[in-house]
Amino acid sequence: MKPSNLLNLFSPLLISLMFLSPTANAGLITSDLGNATSGLVDGNSYALIPDILTAQAGQPAPFDAGIGSELFGDPANVNWLFNYGAITDTILSASFSFGIWDHDSAASGSQLDAFSLGSIDTTVALDAMFESGGGATDAQYSVYTFNLGATFFADLADGNFSVDLDIGGAGLQTALMGGQVSETATNGYHLIYSSLNIVTEDSGPGPIPVPEPSTLLLFVLSLAGLKARIK
């Protein structure tokens, strides 16, 4: 074959290799409940209840109203369910988060009676988060995030992931006059949102193999040398 014909043969191949890119071999499932874009900032205090009610307006229960009260009794147990369809691919990782206002964990004792994600009791883990700084002042907004390891994957795979939250204990109340904070016998709070993110291994076609940059460079140099010899 003539050298010129070799160049004509390999040039389209080189151009194709340069523009090929691998496809992502992973999938992301995201499910949000409540107002995930409320604008409330983790760690900030929001003393005006209208700000919280605005963030909850039009949301589904239990993200639509206050739960319990510092004046009239402990909140009832609440739960919510993520429904996103069964997962057939391999789960690689997952995370869960929720935003809560005014749960008052700075008050004495524990403000958490029980908490579970799927079938797994995670009360101890969330209680440690509560007591280490979340809800450190009255009317504080806090976001809590869990990285869900392999022990949660079976619960995640069926496409329905439940959350169960039971808050109680003492609360905090800020006086209208003077702003003095006092402890109350009961507690109340508002849930703003909750999110679930699951990363899976895509069972579809794998990535398109692409040569390493060094391989492409050698190929280009070889063509350049071949072109120089035929001049």
UniProtKB/TrEMBL annotation:
Coiled coil: none annotated. Residues 209-229 form the Ice-binding protein C-terminal domain. It comes from the Bacteria. NCBIfam families: PEP_CTERM. This is Ice-binding protein C-terminal domain-containing protein. It comes from Colwellia psychrerythraea (strain 34H / ATCC BAA-681) (Vibrio psychroerythus). Transmembrane segments: none annotated. It holds the Pfam family PEP-CTERM. Residues 1-26 form the signal peptide. Keywords: Signal. The keyword Acyltransferase does not apply.
